[in-house]
Amino acid sequence: MELTGLKTRKEAIDYALSQAERAAKIVKLFARPRRSKEKLKNLLDPKYHLMTLREQEKPQAKLKNLVRRDVIVGDPEDLVHLDWSKERRGNLP
Fold it and tell me: How many angstroms separate the CA atoms of 70 and 72, rounded?
């Protein structure tokens, strides 16, 4: 208990059980039969290109999807500096 910094017996038992479970999983993982490189190559369809699929699934920037429209004649900055207070009608929510 001194090495791990655990304070109670319950914490020590929980820690020991979790470590035993972790070790058992590792042993089970390495006990699996390994496949040869040839068998691994044959697992996937030869037409399957991972990098091509990743490029197709990559999200595109939303601004690239916008269509440019020439609606404003003049400098758009002029619209920002207009006095719009006369156009306001009533109380807005």
Answer: 6
Distance CA 54, CA 51 (A): 5
**Residues 8-65: pLDDT tens digits?**
989 999 999 999 999 999 999 888 888 787 777 777 777 888 888 888 888 778 887 7
More confident residue, 84 or 24: 24
Phi and psi of 25, rounded to 5°? -65, -40
Give backbone dihedrals phi and psi of 48, rounded to 5 degrees, phi first. Answer: -80, 115
Query: pTM for this one?
Result: 0.36
Residues 12, 8: Cα–Cα separation, whole Å: 6
The two three-digit tokens of residue 81, written as one number: 């500096």
For residue 22, which phi and psi values (nearest 5 degrees)?
Answer: -60, -45
